[in-house]
């Protein structure tokens, strides 16, 4: 899988982790800073909360997966994929507490 497709897959995974807890206007629409800020505001989540920090960290990690200049040939470091997986678990657990459901 090329790096751009890997990036899209990682972003979709993060969105699904978040949006399983929300519907309609409350859903996270993307991993841009403004999308995350809007989501936090809608749900009354502090910009300094663990959920917000985790989302921003994942956004940065996902963004680093592709630079669009040589997508078909750049191998994504395993360590970066492991960081995304670990941070996704943190986000999932944080949101479970935030929305009052089991992880």
Mean pLDDT figure: 89
Shape, principal axes of CA atoms: globular
State the end-to-end CA separation: 29 Å
Overall tally of domains: 1
Order of helices and strands: HHHH
The fraction of residues in strands falls at under 5%
Report on the architecture of this protein:
There is one protein chain. The termini are far apart. Helix 2 packs antiparallel against helix 3 and helix 3 runs antiparallel to helix 4. The chain is globular and about 40 Å long. It has one domain. It is mostly helical. 20% of the residues are buried. The protein has 4 helices and no strands.
Topology:
Elements: H1 3-19, H2 33-43, H3 50-63, H4 78-98
Helix pairs in contact: 1-3, 1-4, 2-3, 3-4
What attributes does this structure have?
mainly alpha; 4 helices; 103 residues; single chain
Précis, in short:
By secondary structure, this protein is mainly alpha-helical. Helix content is 61%, strand content 0%.
